[in-house]
Amino acid sequence: MYRDGPALPRRAQPCPAWHRSCQGANLSPAGAETSTAALGRPSSAPNTAPPAGNEAKPPNAPSSAGCRAWRRRWAAPGAAGAAAVRAGNPGVPPPPSPGRDRPHVPAPFSLLQDGETFTYRPARGLAVGDPHTAAAGWAFPFPGVLLLEDFLSRAEEAELVRAMDQDPWKPSQSGRRKQDYGPKVNFKKQKLRAGCFVGLPSFSQDIVKRMKAHPILEGFLPVEQCNLDYLPERGSAIDPHLDDWWLWGERLVSLNLLSKTVLSMSCDSENSIQLFNCKKVTVAVHLPRRSLVVLYGAARYKWKHAIHRKHIEHRRVCITFRELSTEFSLGGKHENLGKELLDIALSFQGKPV
After folding, report:
1. Residue 306: inside a domain, yes or no?
2. How far is Cα 297 from Cα 57, in angstroms, rounded to an integer?
3. Containing domain of residue 164, as a range?
4. Residue 131 lies in a domain
5. Kindly report the CA angle at 22 between 240 and 306, in degrees rounded to 5?
6. Which of 10, 49, 278, 286 could form a disulfide with 269 if both were Cys (CB 3.0 to 4.6 A apart)?
7. Is residue 96 part of a domain?
8. Torsion of CA 147, 149, 155, 158, to 10 degrees
9. Which H, E and C letters describe the chain, residue by residue?
């Protein structure tokens, strides 16, 4: 993690363990940041990232015992603490001297309050601690989020919502209304069939073409579209959740229409981002009106996403596109069924099912 403020004399030592549950985010002073090329890490920090492609797989998060032991060694007093660090990690330099060059920590993770403790900064790829909280002044790399502002014009937005409102909206959970374009799926039994699915709507064809022009969405072939309608009068919201990965692939793409909102990202893991317990860390991703957001990698598989009632101030319409998982793609176990569903979806002749 990085200290968000004036540069400190010495950067906090990075955690030696790669935290798969938090995508290896280290806590370090922000003033020491020199580059965000490698997932927001400073250029002087060791490259401990896993090989490319691993983050697309649903992970099995390991224990964070190594990180806790690291903190205990740092906490050991005087020469004994330094000896413990060097004995357990021969290549690690001794800890900074207390009170002189060791950075000040505002509060331990046990004092963090639930809520939007961090805010995602797209330009830097960092989650930055909110002011007036225990996390103020700290930041950590938050990979797996692509935010494209003004993806549509106001005229395109109005025409898109008008087209959606011509079809009926069905009541859904938590005060939402929905329109589904996709196969009939039983996720619990892992069964699906085309059912009444006859394709994605015609008004989505140009949107999909425009999305695929972005490098991160290269080759994106949506097989399902879900339109959601939120109103504050209905108390609309969606609880924290992870999207299924048996049927749906790595990239989740959502178009935010009519009003701004906040996508709240939270982690169930008890593993730590060196100083902060993941279960008490929430990252707020602010979604402007007419913006497109893509979740992939760590943000897709390790962090739950939600929209809270307090962040629905006016009517909001969201269009979410999902692609097929590798199991239903070329060379996968259910390749033929996947091809059948894609042929239907990309006909762009659909009505809500």
Report:
1. yes
2. 8
3. 147-345
4. no
5. 15
6. 278
7. no
8. 50
9. CEECCCCCCCCCCCCCCCCHHHCCCCCCCHHHCCCCCECCECCCCCCCCCCCCHHHCCCCCCCCHHHHHHHHHHHCCHHHHHHHHHHHCCCCCCCCCCCCCCCCCCCCHHHCCCCCCEEEECCCCEEEECCCCCCCCEEEECCCEEEECCCCCHHHHHHHHHHHHCCCCEECCCCCEEEEECCEEECCCCEEECCCCCCCCHHHHHHHHHHCCCHHHCCCCEEEEEEEEECHHHCCCEEEECCCCCCEEEEEEEEEECCCEEEEEECCCCCEECCEEHHHCEEEEEECCCEEEEECHHHHHCCEEEECHHHCCCCEEEEEEEEECHHHCCCCCCHHHHHHHHHHHCCCCCCCC
Residue 65 lies in a domain: no
- Work out the widest C-alpha separation in the chain, in whole angstroms: 73
Tally of domains within the chain: 1
Per-residue pLDDT of the chain (353 residues; tens, 9 = 90+): 656 554 443 444 443 333 333 444 444 444 333 333 333 333 333 343 444 444 444 544 433 333 343 333 333 333 443 343 334 444 434 444 444 443 434 444 444 555 558 999 999 999 999 998 888 888 999 999 999 999 999 999 999 999 999 999 999 999 999 999 999 999 999 999 998 999 999 999 999 999 999 999 999 999 999 999 999 999 999 999 999 999 999 999 999 999 999 999 998 776 656 556 677 789 999 999 999 999 999 999 999 999 999 999 999 999 999 999 999 999 999 999 999 999 999 999 999 99
CATH number reported for the structural domain that contains residue 153 in this entry = 2.60.120.590
Q: What's the predicted TM-score (pTM) here?
A: 0.71
